[in-house]
Design goal:
about 475 residues, alpha/beta, seven-stranded parallel β-sheet, five-stranded mixed β-sheet, 15 helices
């Protein structure tokens, strides 16, 4: 049962926000723990809700000892939703602080208190396993598509190990919830930063908008994926309903539940609804051979790069058991997501986009020069010492040239050893196209770009500044010119 005082970690996320609202509506006192106060503080105005600055990646959640003890003494229920959910991390270690250590730290709080811990995981802990995946299963020797999946698996694995060590009837009560791919029923501009259809929707929208502004005809965009596949979508409010109803059940301790529709969403329906939202055949799913012949257009290459980290999910034929879920919610709960529901969500997202928020794709000449820098110019330095004075430089970082192109570079003792797509490393730089070209041409010192606000740093700021300063002589010695892009 859900007690009177509840802690919600990740209470500002896609599921956290409606969960907090629902708990407040039930008359519960809710403590929302996060590193920063919510940007949208509407629920904080509720007399039953308080925000507690903390960090699940730290022992005792980064709280002062007296605050931690007071929290432990008063809690009755914990909903642990805080997680790193992007797919950009190259290793499990990058997800360790939040997705693994965070589970340990929240479990320790539950252990010290009498609170029932409800841990929100993901159905994709099944990884690359085949066949029907049951709720009681976890370690089936499966591999994983990315480090996010692996980290969520290890978080669950920790909880199972703790329960196995306990004498029955001792220790904290624990329930695990595994939602599928969560969609927002009321999407916002920020929805393009979450998984799945909104990523594709946003990418296609930007490509078509750019073509329209250039008064160019835009053919149907090919998107890599199988029309015979399917995806286990579930709406955010359905996830909240399932979590709360399971939490109120006296039989949920020690159990794991798949929070999924009875039937997955067919990719073919996804494609049809996607195009209905645009009012034309804007995109189609195609297999590898169909995407390669004829060769992809510039717009298709841009879209492929934007959605590359999700491509592995577009060929899936997954099957999940939800017998335990149905034992509490009934067999008729959420039979399938309908085309109308998907179309409504897509249309709301498109309708909410504002002109000033619409980023254009790179103009073809500028895009070509930037692609050539990474595809033709820079590879000539692979395995070579960049400069004699750089022998002490070893790092791995990413560059994002707005709005669509991103690359990860790795330098080992002054030698360029790797150029790869996507984001990787302990730090990175976000930079506008014109600024990037000015830096690599040796015309603009990186430091000046920082001070002007044209280059932003993420991750380890000091290491990012040190690396940019060290590389400045390389840009001046080997400037990238228009001829270099030829």
């Amino acid at each position: 049962m859900i007690g009177p005082r509840v802690l919600v970690t990740g209470g500002t996320g896609v599921v956290g926000r409606p969960l907090v609202a629902a708990l407040l509506a039930m008359g519960r006192e809710v403590v929302v723990l996060s590193r920063k106060a919510p940007k949208n503080g509407d629920f904080l105005a509720h007399p039953g809700c308080t925000h507690l600055p903390g960090d699940v990646s730290l022992p005792e959640l980064g709280l002062a000892p007296e605050t931690y003890r007071g929290l432990a003494d008063s809690l009755t229920t914990i909903f642990h939703l805080a997680a790193r959910t992007d797919f950009k991390g190259a290793t499990v270690a990058e997800y360790q602080p939040i997705n693994i250590d965070g589970v340990r730290h929240v479990y320790a709080l539950a252990e010290q208190s009498t609170a029932h811990l409800h841990h929100v995981s993901t159905a994709f802990v099944r990884g690359t396993g085949e066949g029907l995946f049951h709720e009681h299963e976890l370690d089936c020797g499966q591999g994983f598509r990315n480090s996010y999946e692996a980290s969520k698996f290890r978080g669950e694995q920790f909880l199972r190990e703790q329960l196995a060590r306990r004498t029955p009837g001792t220790g904290p009560r624990v329930t695990v919830h595994r939602p599928g791919i969560i969609l927002e029923r009321q999407p916002s501009q920020a929805s393009a930063n979450t998984f799945g259809p909104f990523i594709f929707l946003d990418g296609v929208f930007r490509v078509l908008l750019a073509a329209h502004r250039r008064q160019e005809h835009s053919d149907t965009l090919r998107v890599r994926g199988s029309v015979t596949g399917s995806l286990p979508f579930i709406f955010d409010d359905d996830v909240v309903e399932a979590i709360l109803r399971i939490a109120e059940s006296p039989d949920s301790h020690g159990q794991t539940f798949h929070l999924l529709s009875a039937e997955p969403c067919p990719n073919r329906m996804l494609e049809e609804v996607f195009n209905a939202a645009f009012g034309r055949r804007a995109a189609c799913l195609a297999d590898a051979a169909a995407c390669a012949d004829p060769p992809p257009t510039a717009a298709e290459r841009i879209l492929a790069r934007k959605t590359a980290i999700y491509a592995a999910y577009m060929d899936l034929h997954l099957r999940f058991d939800r017998g335990r879920l149905e034992s509490i919610l009934g067999r008729d709960w959420r039979p399938a997501i309908t085309a109308d529901e998907l179309l409504t969500a897509f249309s709301r997202y498109l309708a909410g986009k504002k002109e000033e928020d619409r980023a254009l794709v790179l103009p073809p000449p500028e895009a070509g020069r930037i692609e050539a820098y990474f595809d033709s110019f820079l590879p000539d330095f692979l395995g070579r010492q960049l400069l004699a004075g750089l022998v002490s430089l070893s790092c791995r970082f990413w560059l994002e040239i707005a709005p669509h192109l991103s690359r990860t570079l790795e330098i080992d003792r002054g030698r360029l050893v790797k150029i790869a797509p996507g984001h990787g490393g302990a730090f990175g730089y976000r930079v506008q196209p014109a600024t990037f070209l000015a830096v690599v041409a040796g015309r603009l010192p990186p430091q000046q770009g920082f001070f002007q606000g044209d280059i932003s740093l993420e991750g380890n700021t000091l290491e990012a500044l040190r690396t940019a300063t060290a590389l400045e002589p390389f840009f001046q010695t080997y400037p990238y010119t228009a001829q270099g892009a030829a």
